[in-house]
Amino acid sequence: MNGNKKSYDQKKGRRNPAQGYKGDRRDMQTAENESVSENIVIGRNPIRELLHSGRAIDKIFVQRGEREGSVIPLIAEAKSLGIVVVEVEKQKLDSLSGGASHQGIVAFAAEKEYCEISDILTLARERGEKPFVVVADEINDPHNLGAIIRSADCLGAHGIIIPKRRSVGLTSTVSKASAGALENMLIAKAVNIPAAIDELKEAGLWIYAADMDGAPYYEHKFDAPTAIVLGSEGNGISRLVKEKCDFVISIPQYGSVNSLNVSNAAAIIMSEVARQFHKQ
Q: CA–CA separation, 146 vs 163, rounded Å?
């Protein structure tokens, strides 16, 4: 690694998450800030039915201080199922529900069911291929996640791992941005990304972090089961996640703009992995 490279964008005074990508204002949007009405379920009875349906739920928003009546068992049931429950102000729920009566609770249902990490590895084994996995850690822009899914599908990745918290879920916007690729791609949701990386290592994968201080990606020989780790648009890869990785790779920059959008960077790196995996 090149220790001389700076980890902060001096002009903007914020961390440059990768030699290859950096988020802009649109990148900083979160799932909470986006209107995805077809994925939103509002009100206590509809959410009770949603919980009983078995459909994947990304998270539930509860009005801050709302601890009365039928909302209490709903919160308890959601937590027992491992669903993220977030307290927000009433104004946030009003905005998400479009002014409809939400009774202090709103849920985001996932566009697609999540799988286990083991399912991704099983798919690779069934195809007789070396596992190729993408770890998208704390991607907050649904357009970015959708574009990453699309590129991963095109380039033969077997699945994508996203974190349970601090990440956009599988919303309809993600689905649309993937141009249909979401239907073909296995997506696992991990409670803990470092633990997910450990699981991948135990399965024999080499882990590559895409960050600014790594060697050029094309200098690496991708001849073994591989996982590419991408950090968030604003902060890049966290220190703990980066320390778990075996290698750090970067995309050299030659123009006046010193970084790429995370989904663009992902496509560039994944294309090199795919090229080496499938070269004759």
A: 15
Sheet holding 132-136, edge to edge: 186-190, 159-163, 132-136, 226-230, 206-216, 247-250
Cα–Cα distance between 189 and 165 in angstroms, integer?
9
What average pLDDT is seen over the chain?
A: 83
Q: What is the pLDDT of residue 134?
A: 97
By mean pLDDT, which of 34-38, 98-102, 177-181, 245-249 is the weakest? 34-38
Residue 125's SS3 state is: helix
**Per-residue pLDDT tens over the stretch 86-113:** 888 988 888 888 878 888 899 988 888 8
| Structural contact between residues 12 and 258, judged by C-beta atoms closer than 8 angstroms | no
Determine phi and psi for 190, rounding to 5 degrees: -105, 135
- Residue 207 neighbours by CB under 8 Å, 6+ apart: 135, 197, 200, 201, 227, 229, 244, 245, 246, 247
Nearest to 249 by CA among 264, 228, 263: 228
**pTM score of the predicted model:** 0.76
pLDDT, residue 256, reads: 77
Q: How many CB atoms lie within 10 A of CB 194?
A: 16
Residue pair 268/217 in contact by the 8 Å Cβ criterion: yes
| Closest of 115, 185, 110 to residue 153, by C-alpha | 185
Neighbours of 138 (CB within 10 A): 22
**3-state secondary structure (DSSP) of residue 68:** coil
